[in-house]
Amino acid sequence: MAEVVVPPEIRRFLLACIPSVPHLEALLLAHAQPRAWSVGEIAARLYVDEKTAAQLVRDLQEAGLLASSGGGVRFVADEARTQLIDALAAFYSRNVVAVSNLIHSAMERKAHRFADAFRLRKGGS
């Protein structure tokens, strides 16, 4: 089976803005149903606890992808971003493994860089 290639614009967005699959799922939820979402609703839909959902929301707000609205949060939509997230949602629905692997590989690279930096500071090789 041929390896799935993530389109460049989706790849750039994921690597720059989405640190984990739950972050992606929260973003896609808010994008798919454009209304104010409470942390509790996000937690229930993603099968995570409210503390985790609150952190996901904070991270996505810091990235400018969600904004406070009516006691909850909603997707921050502009035409270009909406088109990108539409494309991402469609691609992800057909290529869950490829997108998940890309996100996980980015997390792994960051962990290795952190470990390498720690070893260098400690005088290791």
Automatic annotation (TrEMBL):
The protein, known as: Uncharacterized protein
InterPro entries referenced in this protein's UniProt entry, alphabetically: WH-like_DNA-bd_sf (IPR036388), WH_DNA-bd_sf (IPR036390)
Organism expressing this protein natively: Vulcaniibacterium thermophilum
